[in-house]
Protein backbone atom coordinates (compact mmCIF):
# COMPACT_ATOMS: atom_id res chain seq x y z
CA UNK A 1 0.00 0.00 0.00
CA UNK A 2 1.28 3.45 -0.87
CA UNK A 3 2.47 5.53 2.07
CA UNK A 4 0.59 8.82 2.35
CA UNK A 5 3.17 11.58 2.54
CA UNK A 6 2.60 15.29 3.01
CA UNK A 7 1.66 17.98 0.52
CA UNK A 8 3.29 21.38 0.88
CA UNK A 9 0.84 24.19 0.08
CA UNK A 10 2.32 27.60 -0.69
CA UNK A 11 -0.42 30.13 -0.06
CA UNK A 12 1.42 33.42 -0.63
CA UNK A 13 1.68 34.89 -4.14
CA UNK A 14 5.04 36.59 -3.72
CA UNK A 15 7.34 33.78 -2.55
CA UNK A 16 9.91 31.79 -4.50
CA UNK A 17 10.76 28.12 -4.05
CA UNK A 18 14.38 27.06 -4.15
CA UNK A 19 16.52 23.99 -3.48
CA UNK A 20 19.08 23.70 -0.70
CA UNK A 21 20.54 20.22 -0.43
CA UNK A 22 17.60 17.86 0.15
CA UNK A 23 15.36 20.68 1.33
CA UNK A 24 12.94 23.13 -0.25
CA UNK A 25 13.37 26.76 0.75
CA UNK A 26 10.49 29.21 0.81
CA UNK A 27 11.93 32.63 0.03
CA UNK A 28 10.49 36.13 0.05
CA UNK A 29 12.73 38.97 -1.08
CA UNK A 30 15.81 36.85 -0.25
CA UNK A 31 14.52 36.15 3.25
CA UNK A 32 13.96 32.48 4.14
CA UNK A 33 10.44 31.97 5.45
CA UNK A 34 10.62 28.20 5.69
CA UNK A 35 12.82 25.17 5.11
CA UNK A 36 11.37 21.66 4.75
CA UNK A 37 12.93 18.27 3.96
CA UNK A 38 11.75 16.97 0.59
CA UNK A 39 11.80 13.30 1.57
CA UNK A 40 8.60 13.89 3.59
CA UNK A 41 6.72 15.34 0.60
CA UNK A 42 4.77 13.70 -2.22
CA UNK A 43 3.75 16.98 -3.87
CA UNK A 44 4.03 20.76 -3.73
CA UNK A 45 1.12 23.02 -4.64
CA UNK A 46 1.91 26.71 -5.17
CA UNK A 47 -0.73 29.41 -5.45
CA UNK A 48 0.55 32.47 -7.29
CA UNK A 49 2.93 33.33 -10.10
CA UNK A 50 6.43 33.75 -8.63
CA UNK A 51 7.62 30.22 -9.40
CA UNK A 52 10.34 27.76 -8.48
CA UNK A 53 13.99 27.28 -9.34
CA UNK A 54 14.99 24.89 -12.16
CA UNK A 55 17.16 23.02 -9.65
CA UNK A 56 14.17 22.34 -7.40
CA UNK A 57 11.99 21.27 -10.32
CA UNK A 58 14.70 18.90 -11.56
CA UNK A 59 15.23 17.41 -8.09
CA UNK A 60 11.50 16.85 -7.61
CA UNK A 61 11.04 15.40 -11.10
CA UNK A 62 13.77 12.80 -10.45
CA UNK A 63 12.09 11.76 -7.18
CA UNK A 64 8.49 11.76 -8.41
CA UNK A 65 7.46 14.80 -6.32
CA UNK A 66 4.91 16.68 -8.41
CA UNK A 67 4.91 20.49 -8.37
CA UNK A 68 1.56 22.05 -9.26
CA UNK A 69 1.11 25.75 -10.01
CA UNK A 70 -2.28 27.42 -9.57
CA UNK A 71 -3.67 30.94 -9.60
CA UNK A 72 -4.61 32.51 -6.27
CA UNK A 73 -8.26 31.55 -6.76
CA UNK A 74 -7.39 27.91 -7.38
CA UNK A 75 -7.37 27.62 -11.19
CA UNK A 76 -4.89 25.07 -12.49
CA UNK A 77 -1.93 26.51 -14.43
CA UNK A 78 0.70 23.80 -14.85
CA UNK A 79 2.16 20.66 -13.30
CA UNK A 80 5.81 19.59 -13.28
CA UNK A 81 6.37 15.84 -13.15
CA UNK A 82 9.22 13.52 -14.03
CA UNK A 83 9.53 11.16 -16.95
CA UNK A 84 6.84 8.55 -17.31
CA UNK A 85 7.84 5.28 -15.71
CA UNK A 86 4.58 3.59 -16.58
CA UNK A 87 4.14 0.33 -18.37
CA UNK A 88 3.96 1.14 -22.09
CA UNK A 89 1.64 -1.84 -22.65
CA UNK A 90 -0.78 -0.45 -20.08
CA UNK A 91 -0.84 2.99 -21.69
CA UNK A 92 -1.29 1.56 -25.18
CA UNK A 93 -4.29 -0.37 -23.88
CA UNK A 94 -5.66 2.83 -22.34
CA UNK A 95 -5.30 4.68 -25.66
CA UNK A 96 -7.00 1.91 -27.64
CA UNK A 97 -10.00 1.87 -25.30
CA UNK A 98 -10.22 5.66 -25.31
CA UNK A 99 -10.49 5.60 -29.10
CA UNK A 100 -13.45 3.19 -28.94
CA UNK A 101 -16.67 4.83 -27.72
CA UNK A 102 -18.38 1.58 -26.74
CA UNK A 103 -15.42 0.25 -24.75
CA UNK A 104 -15.00 3.67 -23.16
CA UNK A 105 -18.66 3.69 -22.12
CA UNK A 106 -18.31 0.33 -20.35
CA UNK A 107 -15.67 1.83 -18.06
CA UNK A 108 -17.16 5.33 -17.85
CA UNK A 109 -20.54 4.02 -16.69
CA UNK A 110 -18.89 2.73 -13.51
CA UNK A 111 -17.44 6.17 -12.79
CA UNK A 112 -20.95 7.62 -13.08
CA UNK A 113 -22.56 4.72 -11.24
CA UNK A 114 -20.27 5.37 -8.29
CA UNK A 115 -21.01 9.09 -8.42
CA UNK A 116 -24.80 8.64 -8.41
CA UNK A 117 -24.66 5.91 -5.75
CA UNK A 118 -22.64 8.17 -3.47
CA UNK A 119 -24.98 11.12 -4.08
CA UNK A 120 -27.91 8.90 -3.17
CA UNK A 121 -26.34 7.93 0.14
CA UNK A 122 -25.42 11.50 0.92
CA UNK A 123 -29.14 12.30 0.72
CA UNK A 124 -30.02 9.24 2.79
CA UNK A 125 -27.42 10.09 5.43
CA UNK A 126 -28.81 13.63 5.67
CA UNK A 127 -32.33 12.36 6.37
CA UNK A 128 -30.94 10.01 9.02
CA UNK A 129 -28.80 12.62 10.78
CA UNK A 130 -31.13 15.64 10.49
CA UNK A 131 -34.72 14.36 10.23
CA UNK A 132 -36.11 17.45 11.98
CA UNK A 133 -34.18 19.95 9.87
CA UNK A 134 -34.75 18.77 6.30
CA UNK A 135 -37.78 17.81 4.21
CA UNK A 136 -37.44 14.02 4.54
CA UNK A 137 -40.11 13.08 1.92
CA UNK A 138 -38.40 15.38 -0.61
CA UNK A 139 -35.03 13.73 0.04
CA UNK A 140 -36.54 10.22 -0.11
CA UNK A 141 -38.19 11.03 -3.43
CA UNK A 142 -34.87 12.21 -4.89
CA UNK A 143 -33.12 9.11 -3.53
CA UNK A 144 -35.66 6.84 -5.22
CA UNK A 145 -35.22 8.73 -8.48
CA UNK A 146 -31.45 8.26 -8.31
CA UNK A 147 -31.98 4.53 -7.80
CA UNK A 148 -33.98 4.36 -11.03
CA UNK A 149 -31.32 6.29 -12.92
CA UNK A 150 -28.65 3.91 -11.64
CA UNK A 151 -30.46 0.97 -13.26
CA UNK A 152 -30.25 2.68 -16.63
CA UNK A 153 -26.61 3.62 -16.10
CA UNK A 154 -25.68 0.02 -15.33
CA UNK A 155 -26.86 -1.14 -18.76
CA UNK A 156 -25.72 1.88 -20.79
CA UNK A 157 -23.10 1.37 -23.51
CA UNK A 158 -23.45 4.72 -25.26
CA UNK A 159 -21.38 7.69 -24.12
CA UNK A 160 -23.88 10.36 -25.15
CA UNK A 161 -26.75 8.62 -23.37
CA UNK A 162 -24.51 8.10 -20.36
CA UNK A 163 -23.81 11.82 -20.21
CA UNK A 164 -27.54 12.45 -20.42
CA UNK A 165 -28.22 10.11 -17.50
CA UNK A 166 -25.46 11.79 -15.52
CA UNK A 167 -27.10 15.14 -16.21
CA UNK A 168 -30.46 13.88 -14.94
CA UNK A 169 -28.89 12.57 -11.75
CA UNK A 170 -26.91 15.79 -11.21
CA UNK A 171 -30.06 17.89 -11.58
CA UNK A 172 -31.86 15.73 -9.03
CA UNK A 173 -28.97 15.98 -6.55
CA UNK A 174 -28.20 19.68 -7.07
CA UNK A 175 -31.80 20.65 -6.29
CA UNK A 176 -31.20 19.48 -2.73
CA UNK A 177 -27.66 20.71 -2.21
CA UNK A 178 -28.79 23.97 -0.65
CA UNK A 179 -31.02 22.00 1.75
CA UNK A 180 -27.86 20.32 3.13
CA UNK A 181 -26.46 23.71 4.14
CA UNK A 182 -27.79 23.94 7.69
CA UNK A 183 -25.79 26.85 9.12
CA UNK A 184 -24.85 30.41 8.07
CA UNK A 185 -27.60 30.47 5.45
CA UNK A 186 -27.43 34.23 5.16
CA UNK A 187 -23.91 33.95 3.70
CA UNK A 188 -23.85 30.45 2.19
CA UNK A 189 -26.54 29.59 -0.33
CA UNK A 190 -26.40 27.34 -3.36
CA UNK A 191 -28.63 28.18 -6.31
CA UNK A 192 -26.72 26.63 -9.20
CA UNK A 193 -23.18 25.68 -10.18
CA UNK A 194 -21.12 28.62 -11.44
CA UNK A 195 -17.52 28.33 -12.62
CA UNK A 196 -14.91 30.51 -14.31
CA UNK A 197 -15.57 32.47 -12.23
CA UNK A 198 -17.53 31.22 -9.19
CA UNK A 199 -20.14 33.80 -8.25
CA UNK A 200 -20.83 32.98 -4.61
CA UNK A 201 -19.10 31.64 -1.51
CA UNK A 202 -20.27 28.05 -1.92
CA UNK A 203 -19.17 27.81 -5.55
CA UNK A 204 -15.80 29.33 -4.69
CA UNK A 205 -15.25 26.53 -2.16
CA UNK A 206 -16.51 23.81 -4.51
CA UNK A 207 -14.20 24.96 -7.30
CA UNK A 208 -11.25 24.99 -4.92
CA UNK A 209 -12.04 21.49 -3.61
CA UNK A 210 -12.52 20.06 -7.11
CA UNK A 211 -9.19 21.52 -8.23
CA UNK A 212 -7.36 19.91 -5.30
CA UNK A 213 -9.14 16.59 -5.82
CA UNK A 214 -8.34 16.57 -9.55
CA UNK A 215 -4.68 17.23 -8.76
CA UNK A 216 -4.61 14.29 -6.32
CA UNK A 217 -6.25 11.98 -8.86
CA UNK A 218 -3.85 13.01 -11.62
CA UNK A 219 -0.87 12.23 -9.40
CA UNK A 220 -2.37 8.87 -8.44
CA UNK A 221 -2.98 7.86 -12.06
CA UNK A 222 0.51 8.84 -13.16
CA UNK A 223 1.82 6.90 -10.18
CA UNK A 224 0.42 3.59 -11.47
CA UNK A 225 1.55 4.22 -15.04
CA UNK A 226 -1.61 5.63 -16.62
CA UNK A 227 -1.89 8.80 -18.68
CA UNK A 228 -3.97 11.29 -16.68
CA UNK A 229 -4.74 13.27 -19.86
CA UNK A 230 -6.50 10.49 -21.83
CA UNK A 231 -9.97 9.78 -20.50
CA UNK A 232 -12.95 7.60 -21.28
CA UNK A 233 -15.86 9.87 -20.30
CA UNK A 234 -14.12 13.25 -20.63
CA UNK A 235 -12.72 13.38 -24.14
CA UNK A 236 -9.35 14.70 -25.21
CA UNK A 237 -8.75 18.41 -24.89
CA UNK A 238 -5.32 20.10 -24.78
CA UNK A 239 -4.21 20.62 -21.19
CA UNK A 240 -7.17 18.81 -19.59
CA UNK A 241 -6.47 15.90 -17.24
CA UNK A 242 -9.41 13.98 -18.65
CA UNK A 243 -8.83 10.63 -16.93
CA UNK A 244 -8.34 12.35 -13.57
CA UNK A 245 -11.69 14.09 -14.08
CA UNK A 246 -13.23 10.70 -14.96
CA UNK A 247 -12.06 8.95 -11.81
CA UNK A 248 -12.87 11.86 -9.50
CA UNK A 249 -16.54 11.78 -10.57
CA UNK A 250 -17.30 9.09 -8.00
CA UNK A 251 -15.49 11.14 -5.33
CA UNK A 252 -17.00 14.58 -6.02
CA UNK A 253 -19.92 14.21 -3.64
CA UNK A 254 -18.49 12.17 -0.78
CA UNK A 255 -15.00 13.66 -0.87
CA UNK A 256 -15.36 17.28 -2.00
CA UNK A 257 -19.03 18.24 -1.50
CA UNK A 258 -19.26 16.71 1.98
CA UNK A 259 -16.03 18.46 2.92
CA UNK A 260 -17.37 21.84 1.81
CA UNK A 261 -20.67 21.25 3.61
CA UNK A 262 -18.84 20.31 6.80
CA UNK A 263 -16.75 23.50 6.75
CA UNK A 264 -19.92 25.56 6.43
CA UNK A 265 -22.09 23.65 8.88
CA UNK A 266 -19.34 23.44 11.51
CA UNK A 267 -18.58 27.15 10.99
CA UNK A 268 -14.94 26.48 10.20
CA UNK A 269 -15.29 29.09 7.44
CA UNK A 270 -17.37 32.24 7.52
CA UNK A 271 -18.22 35.24 5.35
CA UNK A 272 -14.95 37.00 6.28
CA UNK A 273 -13.02 34.34 4.37
CA UNK A 274 -14.32 35.58 0.99
CA UNK A 275 -14.08 38.68 -1.15
CA UNK A 276 -16.03 39.67 -4.25
CA UNK A 277 -14.17 41.25 -7.15
CA UNK A 278 -15.47 43.96 -9.47
CA UNK A 279 -16.49 41.43 -12.15
CA UNK A 280 -18.64 39.55 -9.62
CA UNK A 281 -16.18 36.71 -9.08
CA UNK A 282 -15.91 35.43 -5.51
CA UNK A 283 -12.53 34.18 -4.26
CA UNK A 284 -11.21 33.08 -0.90
CA UNK A 285 -8.93 35.35 1.10
CA UNK A 286 -5.42 34.27 2.07
CA UNK A 287 -6.71 33.37 5.52
CA UNK A 288 -9.65 31.52 4.00
CA UNK A 289 -7.41 29.39 1.79
CA UNK A 290 -5.12 28.67 4.72
CA UNK A 291 -8.08 27.49 6.82
CA UNK A 292 -9.44 25.44 3.92
CA UNK A 293 -6.12 23.75 3.16
CA UNK A 294 -5.42 22.90 6.80
CA UNK A 295 -8.82 21.22 7.06
CA UNK A 296 -8.28 19.46 3.70
CA UNK A 297 -5.02 17.94 4.88
CA UNK A 298 -6.63 16.86 8.14
CA UNK A 299 -9.51 15.20 6.27
CA UNK A 300 -7.04 13.24 4.13
CA UNK A 301 -5.69 11.62 7.30
CA UNK A 302 -9.11 10.37 8.43
CA UNK A 303 -9.99 6.73 7.75
CA UNK A 304 -12.73 5.23 5.62
CA UNK A 305 -13.72 1.61 4.97
CA UNK A 306 -13.14 0.76 1.32
CA UNK A 307 -16.02 -1.57 0.45
CA UNK A 308 -14.26 -3.38 -2.40
CA UNK A 309 -11.03 -3.97 -0.47
CA UNK A 310 -12.85 -4.62 2.79
CA UNK A 311 -10.29 -2.70 4.82
CA UNK A 312 -9.79 0.73 6.35
CA UNK A 313 -7.66 3.26 4.48
CA UNK A 314 -7.08 6.98 4.79
CA UNK A 315 -9.25 9.28 2.70
CA UNK A 316 -6.11 10.62 1.07
CA UNK A 317 -5.31 7.17 -0.32
CA UNK A 318 -8.68 6.71 -2.06
CA UNK A 319 -7.46 8.23 -5.38
CA UNK A 320 -4.39 5.97 -5.31
CA UNK A 321 -6.46 2.85 -4.63
CA UNK A 322 -8.91 3.68 -7.43
CA UNK A 323 -6.05 4.35 -9.84
CA UNK A 324 -4.57 0.96 -8.99
CA UNK A 325 -7.92 -0.79 -9.47
CA UNK A 326 -8.38 0.89 -12.85
CA UNK A 327 -4.92 -0.23 -13.93
CA UNK A 328 -5.69 -3.77 -12.82
CA UNK A 329 -8.90 -3.75 -14.86
CA UNK A 330 -7.08 -2.53 -17.96
CA UNK A 331 -4.58 -5.37 -17.47
CA UNK A 332 -7.57 -7.76 -17.24
CA UNK A 333 -6.80 -8.73 -13.65
CA UNK A 334 -10.34 -7.54 -12.82
CA UNK A 335 -13.41 -8.17 -14.96
CA UNK A 336 -14.59 -4.59 -14.53
CA UNK A 337 -13.52 -1.41 -12.79
CA UNK A 338 -14.94 -1.26 -9.23
CA UNK A 339 -15.96 2.32 -8.40
CA UNK A 340 -15.49 3.79 -4.94
CA UNK A 341 -18.75 3.37 -3.04
CA UNK A 342 -19.57 5.09 0.26
CA UNK A 343 -22.43 4.41 2.61
Automatic annotation (TrEMBL):
UniProt family annotation: Belongs to the CRISPR-associated endonuclease Cas1 family.
Q: Which InterPro entries match?
A: Cas1, CRISPR-assoc_Cas1, CRISPR-assoc_Cas1_C, CRISPR-assoc_Cas1_DVULG, CRISPR-assoc_Cas1_N
Report the EC number(s), separated by commas if there are several: 3.1.-.-
Protein task: CRISPR (clustered regularly interspaced short palindromic repeat), is an adaptive immune system that provides protection against mobile genetic elements (viruses, transposable elements and conjugative plasmids). CRISPR clusters contain spacers, sequences complementary to antecedent mobile elements, and target invading nucleic acids. CRISPR clusters are transcribed and processed into CRISPR RNA (crRNA). Acts as a dsDNA endonuclease. Involved in the integration of spacer DNA into the CRISPR cassette.
A Pfam family in this protein? Cas_Cas1
The name on file for this protein is CRISPR-associated endonuclease Cas1
Gene symbol here is cas1
UniProt entry keywords in alphabetical sequence:
Antiviral defense, DNA-binding, Endonuclease, Hydrolase, Magnesium, Manganese, Metal-binding, Nuclease
Native source species: Domibacillus antri
UniProt xrefs under CDD domains:
Cas1_I-C
GO terms of molecular function: DNA binding; DNA endonuclease activity; hydrolase activity; metal ion binding
List the HAMAP family hit by this protein, alphabetically.
Cas1
Has the keyword DNA-binding been applied to this entry?
yes
